[in-house]
Amino acid sequence: MGHWLQKQVNVPFFLKKSCRRLNLFCSFRVFIVDASEKTNKTMKETSEITREKLADVFKAERPRLLRYACYRLADGDDAEDVLQETFLKLHTRLSDTEDGQIDNLPSYLFRTLANVCAKWQASANRIKTVPLDTRVDVADTTPDTRNEDDYKRIARLLTEIPDEQAEVIRLRIYGDNSFAQVAEILSLPLPTVKSRFLYGLEKIRRSMKQNN
């Protein structure tokens, strides 16, 4: 009798196999859900750290960023507006960006600022200039001591050379970046950056001699 009952409660082999698969699937599914929740939590924490890091680096780099924008836009107020727009744009973008995707945050800031400046200028031809009654040697200027008129004079001078050369000069002199940093910001080989810088300055100096 007991033997007969034992036979009745025995689960067929194919059902045992299915049950094992079901248990394995359920365990795996729980593992995936748990791992996904942990990943989402980690990404959220990373995103928060990234935004804090952005604020810290932006504050540290602000003088250089602002100087670059002033000499590109030829206006201090416009430069402040563009800088604010750049920060807000990056802050929003980094909400969905993993920290590891940005290798060099200062260079990333300059690259983004340059793009925002380009759109700002294209929107309404915003470069303001003044008569070049006093020519300035771009290579010998001290950015920290310049004023609104100097922003305009320098911006006007830089429009006389190819923009690819002018941008290297702006980033190198007014952004206070090394040649290696400029190369990283523009994604260019170092020799190309140096040659553009030298050719750009030479063209400006040649133009200055012709007008004197």
Description:
The chain has 212 residues and is mainly alpha-helical. The chain is built from 8 helices and no strands. It has one domain (18-211). The chain has helices at residues 2-9, 13-73, 76-93, 105-124, 148-158, 163-174, 179-186, 190-211. Helix 2 packs across helix 6. It is globular and about 50 Å long.
Note the overall shape.
Answer: globular
Low-pLDDT segments, ≥5 res:
1-9, 28-33, 35-49, 128-145
Largest sheet, strands/sense/barrel: none
Strand content: under 5%
Q: Rg, please?
A: 30 Å
SS element count, helices = 8
Q: Helical percent range?
A: over 70%
What is the domain total for the residues? 1
Q: Structural class of the helix and strand makeup? A: mainly alpha
Give the end-to-end Cα distance, rounded to a whole number of Å.
120 Å
Write down how many β-strands occur, each being a DSSP E stretch of 2 or more residues. 0
Spell out the helices and strands N to C.
HHHHHHHH
Write a concise synopsis of the structure shown.
The chain has 212 residues and is mainly alpha-helical.
Write the layout of secondary structure elements.
Layout (H helix, E strand, L loop, with lengths): L1 H8 L3 H61 L2 H18 L11 H20 L23 H11 L4 H12 L4 H8 L3 H22 L1
Key descriptive features of the protein:
single chain, 212 residues, mainly alpha, 8 helices
